[in-house]
Amino acid sequence: MAVLPRSSYYDKHYKQSAALIRARRPYLVKNTLTGLGIFAFCMGVYTFTIRAVSQDEFEDVQVPDAVQQSPRAGASTMTGGPIVK
Fold this sequence. Notes:
Elements: H1 18-24, H2 28-54
């Protein structure tokens, strides 16, 4: 079984070391703001889509009066003409 090499940024219990915390500190605020921006954009698109779809009343769609039955298995859908074998 292959063992993954350990990074110097994690201890033997895979906890972050002080060096990793220091290395990530400059990017913490920028990454948080970017994540919040992406989240806000996704929620805006989702909300817009749900509101746009829920406004449709489907009044322009004609619903047939009687339920049409589909043809039985093995039944021909041809209305005329010779049968070619």
